[in-house]
Amino acid sequence: MPPNRGIGVSEISGRAKDLMYRQFGGLPRSFWIVFAGQFVNRIGSMAVPFLVLYLGNQGLSASDAGTVLAAVGLGGLVSQPMGGVLADRFGPRIALVAGLSASAVSIVLLGAARGLPTVLAAAVLVGAVADIYRPAAAALVAAVVPAQSRPRAYSLIYWAVNLGVGLAGLLAGLLATYGYGLLFLVQAAAAAAFALLVAILVPGRSATGWSPPATSRSTTVGLLRDRLLLALIGLNIVSGLINAQITVGLPLAIKNSGLSSVVYGAVFMVSGLLIGVLQPLLAGWLERFDRIVVLSVSWAVFGLGVAATGLARTAPEYLATVVVWTLGEIGAASFVGAIIADLAPAHAQGRYQAAFGWSYAAAQLLGPLGGAYLYGSVAPWALWWSCGLLAVLGAAGGLALVAPVRRRSAAPASTPLLENAL
């Protein structure tokens, strides 16, 4: 019998290289520029999360601060649709640079504003331009990444964003000790840095490689008549309503269990760590499965994980539910952007991504109101059972779309643009 030599160092190294290539290899240079820009931009996203504390230092009341945050949200309703129109009209590269530049200017104006009327005006402007870059970035990724690699690409973008958000919270807390005004400058600088990266390093579109649709109105009308897209938007709103309970129902449940706010902070820490470790690994593995099926199952896992909050009473039990819904979140993030990119005509990538992105904003407006009402005016169990029911309905709706999504994803209209056509 030959001796058992085990696995050699060279074999382990080879397997590691193969794994790294499956997760990170084969993606074009322009994608990695967007990846790096998203990471930098998110690290710098510090001012808005600390806005309530900053406004308090400026002498505004808690009620006034809430009004300012609502103004940011109001502006946000038009931000992604505007970004989608710009991306389709002028190309994703130009829209991305313009949106980020406007965002940098607006956040400086908000930091310089004094008095409630001026602050409110600046807040609406911040909200209106803050997310212009999102559909443009998604359209750019769709343009340069082959269709079969899009789930991995969008998953890596999501990973970069979450890593950046985690670092932003840590750095913002340290920088705030030197004055909240510094946070506005850092956020503006991060947006400007992302814009500069794209402007300098992403190739410009050629004269014949990209052209706008015949009319803006025809594209918009076609989008509103796309029943498959509208169905996916509706299902994503359902998932978004559940997602909103992470910031509404979950902290109320933790408080009512007699636990401290430290447990609520640990929720985001655990979720962030899981995303940081598992996202790149799961993205490559999930690519072998049907995209809409994975998305539907992920919606179910996410929603049922949030619904399980109603069963938790201790810190370990709450954190166990976090593990479940974070796994669902990872699965959904790996495929949702790729599915929309596959469905969109090449000349309407920006508007399709914007329309889908708008569903998150709509859910964040409706979810907190509904969650607070059910938890406080009906009963906590009503909220958690509602989350479970919505999770099942959302997953069933997604599975009902498997056949039409497969047909549309195979259509020539979803073929990506060339990298030099930006």
Q: Which key features would you list for this structure?
A:
422 residues; mainly alpha; Growth Hormone, Chain: A; 2 domains; 0% strand
Please explain how this structure is put together.
The chain is an all-alpha fold and 422 residues long. It folds into two domains: 28-152 and 163-204, Growth Hormone, Chain: A, CATH 1.20.1250; 221-411, Growth Hormone, Chain: A (Up-down Bundle), CATH 1.20.1250.20. It is built from 18 helices and no strands. Helix 3 crosses helix 4, helix 7 crosses helix 16 (349-378) and helix 14 (291-307) packs antiparallel against helix 17 (380-400). The termini are far apart. Mean pLDDT is 82; it is low at 206-210 and 412-422.
Summarize this, please?
The chain is an all-alpha fold and 422 residues long.
Topology:
Layout: H1 9-24, H2 29-43, H3 51-57, H4 62-90, H5 92-112, H6 116-130, H7 133-144, H8 150-175, H9 181-201, H10 216-224, H11 227-243, H12 249-256, H13 261-286, H14 291-307, H15 315-343, H16 349-378, H17 380-400, H18 402-409
Helix pairs in contact: 2-8, 2-9, 3-4, 4-5, 4-6, 4-7, 4-16, 5-6, 5-7, 5-9, 7-16, 8-13, 8-15, 11-16, 11-17, 13-15, 14-15, 14-17, 15-16, 16-17
